[in-house]
Structure formats: structure tokens, C-alpha cells
């Protein structure tokens, strides 16, 4: 499954922080029912076996809803679970190396904070860019901030889809209007909510409006 600009509208990144009585799969399915267009499984603390087990569940779930599914950082888990691809940061392996491991038909997303990083990622074969943090975020305290002007410049400099990430929620998403992004990536704006499906529906509508403005 390949990604396009439409699949970038509302990109969900998982987080175990707000699981409570629900499993991660239950929360993600609520988001999928609400209209999430892309899912990234982000696990920093699970061992390999548990991570792979979770990845296989997510693969089945996302396939059911025809939504692209990638793994954060871990190429080995992406291969073993037959995920649609992987998302890597600037400190991870080069796009070309990841591509040689995954193959031509898989999705590779890359985090970027500058125009130069964005152009290089596209040249090396990235399928989309995640740019941020555009607002302060509690889920990644070490994230560098990216100005709206830089975000605009990145969108103008590349042809591949661009999503903004970092502290985006229903109260500030419309501030990103006019930047040229194709959608937003969110974590707490979905998964800390008691009604994830309704929160997703609301953010989908807001993201569509943001892109049009």
C-alpha cells in the first residue's frame, strides 16, 4: 500500500500512555472508525516479541480499514510484521539503506526540521515528510521547534506529501492554514480522549478545513 496526499489528512501515532481498560488495538480501531487515514505504531519500551505481536495486530486492523500502517524507527519489526513501511528520524539510518532493506514497494517517512533535510530526504527516496514540532508537545519533550515559515518553505521545496506534527489539537490546528501541508499527525489529541471516535471525526473535519483555507 502506497501513501498519497489524501492518506496524510489525519495521521495517528500510537501511545500507551492513555490505555486504561482498553488495549492499543481497541483505541486504534476507534480512531480508524472515526476516519484516521494513516497509522504509525510507536513503541519505545516494548521488547522485540511484544512489539512484533502488537505490530501484527495493527497490520490486520489497518488492512481491514484500507489505511496505510508504518512502524516508528524499527526496520526489523516493519519487515517481520509486513507493515506497509517505516518512519525514521534524522538520527536513524539513511533512507537509501532503509529502502534496500524494505524494498521498492514499501513506504518510508522521514522526520525533517529544515529545508535541507527535507530536500535530501526526497532525493534519497522518502515517500512523505513529518515536520515538527510545530507546537510544544508533551509526548516528545526533546523535539526541536519548527516555525510556520520553515514549514511553508519545506512544503514549497518538495513534491512529496508533508504532514505537520507536534502539539497539534482541535484548538490550534486551524493556525496551520496556508502552510501548504497535506495533513497533521496527532497523538494525545486522539488517544487521551474518552471518546476517540468522536475526537477523530472532529479532527478530520478540521484538517480538511485547514487544508482548504
From TrEMBL:
Cofactor binding description: Binds 1 Mg(2+) ion per subunit.
Biochemical pathway: Cofactor biosynthesis; thiamine diphosphate biosynthesis; thiamine phosphate from 4-amino-2-methyl-5-diphosphomethylpyrimidine and 4-methyl-5-(2-phosphoethyl)-thiazole: step 1/1
EC numbers, comma separated: 2.5.1.3
Endpoints of the signal sequence: none
Enzyme type, top EC level: transferase
PANTHER family listed in its UniProt record: THIAMINE-PHOSPHATE PYROPHOSPHORYLASE, THIAMINE-PHOSPHATE SYNTHASE
Name of the protein this chain belongs to: Thiamine-phosphate synthase
Organism: [Clostridium] fimetarium
Gene name linked to the record: thiE
Amino acid at each position: 500500500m502506497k501513501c498519497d496526499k489524501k492518506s496524510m489528512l489525519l495521521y495517528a501515532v500510537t501511545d500507551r500512555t492513555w490505555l486504561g481498560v482498553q488495549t492499543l488495538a481497541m483505541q486504534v480501531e476507534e480512531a480508524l472508525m472515526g476516519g484516521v487515514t494513516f497509522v504509525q505504531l510507536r513503541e519505545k519500551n516494548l521488547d522485540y516479541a511484544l512489539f512484533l505481536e502488537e505490530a501484527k495486530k495493527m497490520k490486520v486492523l489497518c488492512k481491514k480499514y484500507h489505511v496505510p500502517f508504518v512502524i516508528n524507527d524499527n526496520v526489523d519489526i516493519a519487515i517481520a510484521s509486513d507493515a506497509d513501511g517505516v518512519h525514521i528520524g534524522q538520527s536513524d539510518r539513511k533512507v537509501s539503506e532503509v529502502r534496500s532493506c524494505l524494498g521498492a514497494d514499501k513506504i518510508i517517512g522521514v522526520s525533517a526540521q529544515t529545508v535541507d533535510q527535507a530536500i535530501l530526504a526526497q532525493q534519497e527516496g522518502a515517500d512523505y515528510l513529518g515536520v515538527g514540532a510545530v507546537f510544544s508537545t508533551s509526548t516528545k519533550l526533546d523535539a526541536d521547534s519548527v516555525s510556520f515559515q520553515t514549514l511553508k518553505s519545506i512544503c514549497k521545496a518538495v513534491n512529496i506529501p508533508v504532514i505537520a506534527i507536534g502539539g497539534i489539537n482541535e484548538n490550534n490546528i486551524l493556525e496551520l492554514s496556508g502552510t501548504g501541508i497535506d495533513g497533521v499527525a496527532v497523538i494525545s489529541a486522539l488517544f487521551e480522549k474518552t471518546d476517540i471516535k468522536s475526537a477523530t471525526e472532529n479532527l478530520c473535519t478540521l484538517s480538511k478545513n485547514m487544508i482548504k483555507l
